[in-house]
């Protein structure tokens, strides 16, 4: 039997270090999270390119200019491409346009980002105006909706889960579960920042999946603790430890089974779902880790502290 | 649960689920309606259109040749449709066919013939699971706000006030101060008609909210609506919409609710207004000659019945306005009712001439609710007025006693009661020949508000899936591979019990999919994520149970006791973990939108189905195995655990 409680400070420190590294790299090295059109909005243009321009050429063009562009072939016959450029590249585009037009060009100075993009494309590909089929600054779909509802959603969810758990268990369990949940969320977000994964709809889905999975995992351990707590011969920390060990086989088997189905996405080669699968793989491992090493030990810490308060 | 009869419950559930899912996999027939007007096109054009259709049929629409079409697409069909037969005909495909061959195919009349299941059990309602825009493509529509129309409508509502103020301004009998006041007020009103970008944006925001609500009411799970600020337009993405023009109508519906006074009747007791009488006289003449079909009202009804669109209706009314010399001050409307039979459909029955000036509009009304009138056996809509609205309403009703005040809903006059006495108090109701649905719709329009600006279609495009068909196929294979691996994993670890878990898992997915298709749910990528999580939770539940049974066996219990005890012990654990997840799921449905909602819906139903399969189905099978078939040894895990006191 492994003594999980004994090493609780080690595991909690480990988590805190992970969080520190994740956010340190995110903000220190990259200056924040990756941007994406879905999340932050950006520029979108649909352009009819000359027949000799292929996707490869376009990709080279944008990468040589250090612009991150997502290309979608809209119409094969006409060679129409949709070009999505995230907000992160807006300054770069303006800069490039200014270089092209000359430092003193009033036209370039006053140009909006979208004008600059059109201007650049027109000059570099010798396009007529009418070949630019549409060009817009698009707003964010996901980002705006999520930031407005996300926080209230999360706090309400935590609140209701807390009520349910306080009712079914005790307050200390509710607190432990919620803290473990926040822990999982924060680390996963740090992970997303660390690897500069572009926020997108599938990533949101992965985060939500993780939330569901993580709560589930924690509750199973807690349930066992509650059951064993009737047996008061042992100290509370001892009970926690026994319970974690008793549920270990279940925790392990479940995690493996769920991991199998997620890893299959990566093995199966569904490239567009890779980010989703990575976040989920990480999240499942993390969720398992937190239910064993974080949630229950936190309950133990709270229990010890509250007893100490009562005595003093 | 010892009774064997209970086994019929899961069998029944699975059987009905499979029945529900059948239309998804069955061979289906699609009627692609052709335009009757096609034959009036020049022969050259017709040939081109047909050969283009035939060409694209082979290369784009049906490259693998999975579907059959009758007659050959290069031939114009004798019946008024092409019949396409095949499996997996998606609504995206139907859309594509219709949109790209608009001169040949009449989209609103396309019909996916119901399968037997749909025909007999659901009265023809389609049952297939719809795929989201991100999976199968769909429609993307950009709608531009028509601010000119908006201002002209706004001007309509101020006609009277402007008229009075202009008179006041020029009235020499009034004091300098009063005239100045009138002039200032006029200026203020004029400033309402100037639209700053900020005001435009505010109107667009309002429109966006209303469109969002309307689409949600249409059972579209993940429509995306966003504003394109610099174009004064709204972009709407519609996943898997099979009838884009119908949805488009719903989005663009500028249905408002307004009160307008009818033209005054002259002294003659039978008269209902000069212009109304003139129209009626004409109708009578034709009726007397036995030419009922030629009367304007019947012709108008035909326009409506043939679904020729609002533009045709407007054209018709404009022509009539000219014909009868209806002055600028008035506007021609049509009153819709059900004739004498309450079950008859709502149709235009009478032309009415109303004042162009709006007496009271939707902005003045709020809190509408539909109610049932026991005495008259019909629905009505009651609402309250804002304080300003109440004032206006009292003013109008007191000045116009004896005149008719028509309620215009959208472009339909739904009722035009005579004002008997001034109405004060700020509450009112609308009686019309409503069914429940219409009453609810009307109440929604009043409460939700009307679309503040008319919207024109700027760009309508069929868009391909963001992931591409190939990557969806790869993704689907990957998910199936994962599923298969999980099944093998469970078999290896838990042997016979693993098989039980696998059966439960399969049933879980089947029942879940059936439920989703029953609800007309639109499946998207986040929805898939929800299903993956559901599978994970279902596996988890079974693992919890088996680990518990294992413990009981290790403690030396008899197999049958161990199984019973294992399920008992696991019950609350499974309940607790599922209920907490369900809580977050329900909140996500209530508060979230778009992708979050889609995910949460699959998750919540998944939890319910997995509770059924793990707590009920698994238990029943295990009970049967242990108590009926006399299984004495359960191999759970690699250690063979036998009960000691067999």
UniProtKB/TrEMBL annotation, chain A:
GO terms of molecular function: protein-transporting ATPase activity
GO BP, one annotated term: protein transport by the Sec complex
Highest taxon of the lineage: Bacteria
Cell compartments where the protein resides: Cell membrane
Record's keyword terms, sorted: Cell membrane, Membrane, Protein transport, Translocation, Transmembrane, Transmembrane helix, Transport
Segments traversing the membrane: 7-27, 146-167, 174-197, 203-222, 252-271, 277-302
Gene3D superfamilies on file: Multidrug efflux transporter AcrB transmembrane domain
Domain spans labelled Protein export membrane protein SecD/SecF C-terminal: 129-302
Gene Ontology CC terms, in alphabetical order: plasma membrane
InterPro entries given in the database record: SecD/SecF_arch_bac (IPR022813), SecD/SecF_bac (IPR022645), SecD_SecF_C (IPR048634), SecD_SecF_C_bact (IPR055344), SecF_bac (IPR005665)
Membrane topology: Multi-pass membrane protein
Predominant location category: membrane
Function: Part of the Sec protein translocase complex. Interacts with the SecYEG preprotein conducting channel. SecDF uses the proton motive force (PMF) to complete protein translocation after the ATP-dependent function of SecA.
Family indicated by similarity: Belongs to the SecD/SecF family. SecF subfamily.
Subunit structure, interactors included: Forms a complex with SecD. Part of the essential Sec protein translocation apparatus which comprises SecA, SecYEG and auxiliary proteins SecDF. Other proteins may also be involved.
Name recorded for this polypeptide: Protein-export membrane protein SecF
Gene name in the database record: secF
From TrEMBL, chain B:
GO molecular function terms listed in the Swiss-Prot or TrEMBL record: protein-transporting ATPase activity
UniProt subcellular location: Cell membrane
Primary residence: membrane
UniProt cross-references to Pfam families, sorted A to Z: SecD_1st (PF21760), SecD_SecF_C (PF02355), SecDF_P1_head (PF22599)
Domain called Protein translocase subunit SecDF P1: residue spans: 205-261
GO biological process: intracellular protein transmembrane transport; protein targeting; protein transport by the Sec complex
Subunit structure: Forms a complex with SecF. Part of the essential Sec protein translocation apparatus which comprises SecA, SecYEG and auxiliary proteins SecDF. Other proteins may also be involved.
Function: Part of the Sec protein translocase complex. Interacts with the SecYEG preprotein conducting channel. SecDF uses the proton motive force (PMF) to complete protein translocation after the ATP-dependent function of SecA.
Name by which UniProt lists this protein: Protein translocase subunit SecD
Native source organism of the sequence: Leptospira andrefontaineae
Taxonomic placement: Bacteria, Pseudomonadati, Spirochaetota, Spirochaetia, Leptospirales
Gene from which the chain derives: secD
């Amino acid at each position: 039997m492994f003594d999980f409680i004994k090493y609780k400070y080690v595991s909690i420190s480990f988590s805190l270090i992970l969080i520190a590294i994740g956010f340190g790299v995110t903000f220190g090295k990259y200056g924040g999270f990756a941007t994406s059109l879905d999340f932050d909005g950006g520029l979108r243009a649909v352009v009819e390119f000359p027949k000799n321009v292929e996707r490869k050429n376009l990709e080279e063009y944008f990468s040589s200019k250090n612009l991150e562009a997502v290309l979608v072939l809209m119409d094969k016959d006409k060679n129409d491409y949709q070009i999505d450029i995230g907000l992160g590249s807006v300054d770069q585009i303006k800069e490039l346009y200014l270089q092209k037009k000359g430092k003193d060009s009033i036209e370039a100075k006053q140009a909006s980002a979208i004008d600059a993009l059109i201007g650049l494309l027109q000059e570099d590909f010798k396009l007529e105006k009418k070949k630019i089929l549409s060009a817009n600054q698009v707003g964010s779909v996901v980002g705006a909706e999520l930031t407005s509802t996300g926080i209230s959603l999360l706090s309400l969810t935590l609140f209701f889960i807390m009520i349910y758990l306080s009712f079914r268990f005790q307050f200390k369990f509710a607190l432990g579960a919620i803290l473990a949940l926040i822990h999982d969320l924060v680390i996963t977000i740090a992970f997303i920042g660390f690897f500069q994964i572009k926020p997108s709809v599938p990533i949101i889905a992965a985060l939500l999946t993780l939330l569901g999975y993580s709560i589930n995992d924690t509750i199973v351990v807690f349930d066992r603790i509650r059951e064993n707590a009737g047996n008061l011969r042992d100290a509370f920390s001892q009970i926690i430890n026994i319970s974690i060990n008793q549920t270990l086989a279940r925790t392990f088997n479940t995690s493996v089974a769920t991991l199998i189905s997620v890893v299959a996405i990566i093995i199966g080669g569904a490239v567009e779902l890779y980010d989703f699968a990575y976040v989920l793989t990480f999240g499942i491992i993390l969720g398992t880790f937190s239910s064993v090493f974080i949630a229950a030990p936190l309950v133990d810490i709270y229990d010890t502290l509250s007893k100490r308060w009562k005595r003093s | 649960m010892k009774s064997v009869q209970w086994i019929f419950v899961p069998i029944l559930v699975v059987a009905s689920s499979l029945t529900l899912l059948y239309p998804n996999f069955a061979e289906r027939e699609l009627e692609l309606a052709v335009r009757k007007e096609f034959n009036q096109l020049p022969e050259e054009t017709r040939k081109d259109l047909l050969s283009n259709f035939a060409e694209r049929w082979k290369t784009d629409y049906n490259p693998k040749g999975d579907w059959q079409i009758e007659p050959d697409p290069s031939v114009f069909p004798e019946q008024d449709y092409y019949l396409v037969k095949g499996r997996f005909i998606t609504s995206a495909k139907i859309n594509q066919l219709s949109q790209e061959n608009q001169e040949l195919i009449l989209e609103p009349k396309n019909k996916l013939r119901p399968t037997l299941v749909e025909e007999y059990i659901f009265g023809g309602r389609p049952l297939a699971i719809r795929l989201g825009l991100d999976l199968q493509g769909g429609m993307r529509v950009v709608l531009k706000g028509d601010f000119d129309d908006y201002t002209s409508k706004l001007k309509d509502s101020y006609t009277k006030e402007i008229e009075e103020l202009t008179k006041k301004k020029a009235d020499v009998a009034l004091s300098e101060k009063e005239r100045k006041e009138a002039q200032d007020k006029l200026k203020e009103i004029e400033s309402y008609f100037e639209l700053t970008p900020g005001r435009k944006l505010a109107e667009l925001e309002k429109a966006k909210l209303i469109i969002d609500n309307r689409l949600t009411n249409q059972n579209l799970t993940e429509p995306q609506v966003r504003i394109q600020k610099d174009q004064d337009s709204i972009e709407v993405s519609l996943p898997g919409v099979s009838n884009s023009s119908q949805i488009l109508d719903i989005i663009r519906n500028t249905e408002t609710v307004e009160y307008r006074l009818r033209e005054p009747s002259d002294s003659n007791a039978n008269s209902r207004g000069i212009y109304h009488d003139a129209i009626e006289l004409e109708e009578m003449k034709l009726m007397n000659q036995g030419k009922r079909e030629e009367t304007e009202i019947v012709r108008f009804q035909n326009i409506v019945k043939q679904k020729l669109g609002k533009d045709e209706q407007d054209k018709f009314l404009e022509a009539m306005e000219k014909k009868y010399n209806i002055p600028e001050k008035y506007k021609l409307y049509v009153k819709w009712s059900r004739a004498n039979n309450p079950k008859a459909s709502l149709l235009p029955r009478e032309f009415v001439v109303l004042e162009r000036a709006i007496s009271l509009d939707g902005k003045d009304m709020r809190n509408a609710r539909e109610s049932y009138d026991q005495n008259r056996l019909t629905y009505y809509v009651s609402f309250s007025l804002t304080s300003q609205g109440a004032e206006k309403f009292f003013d109008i009703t007191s000045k116009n006693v004896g005149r008719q005040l028509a309620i215009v809903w959208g472009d339909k006059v739904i009722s035009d009661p005579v004002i008997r006495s001034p109405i004060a108090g700020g509450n009112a109701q609308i009686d019309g020949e409503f069914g429940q649905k219409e009453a609810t719709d009307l109440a929604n329009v009043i409460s939700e508000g009307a679309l503040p600006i008319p919207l024109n279609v700027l760009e309508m495009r069929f868009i391909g899936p963001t992931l591409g068909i190939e990557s969806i196929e790869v993704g689907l294979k990957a998910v199936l591979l994962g599923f298969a691996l999980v099944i093998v994993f469970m078999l290896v670890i838990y042997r016979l019990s693993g098989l039980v878990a696998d059966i439960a898992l399969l049933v879980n997915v089947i029942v879940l999919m059936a439920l989703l298709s029953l609800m007309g749910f639109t499946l998207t990528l986040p929805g898939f994520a929800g299903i993956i999580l559901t599978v994970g939770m279902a596996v988890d539940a079974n693992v919890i149970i088996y680990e518990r049974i294992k413990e009981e066996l290790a403690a030396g219990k008899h197999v049958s006791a161990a199984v019973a005890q294992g399920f008992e012990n696991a019950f609350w654990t499974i309940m607790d973990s599922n209920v907490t997840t369900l809580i977050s799921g329900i909140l996500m449905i209530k508060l979230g939108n778009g992708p979050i909602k889609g995910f949460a819906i699959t998750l919540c139903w998944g939890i319910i189905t997995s509770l059924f399969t793990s707590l009920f189905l698994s238990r029943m099978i295990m009970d049967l195995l242990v108590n009926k078939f006399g299984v004495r040894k359960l191999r759970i895990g690699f250690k063979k655990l036998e009960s000691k006191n067999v």
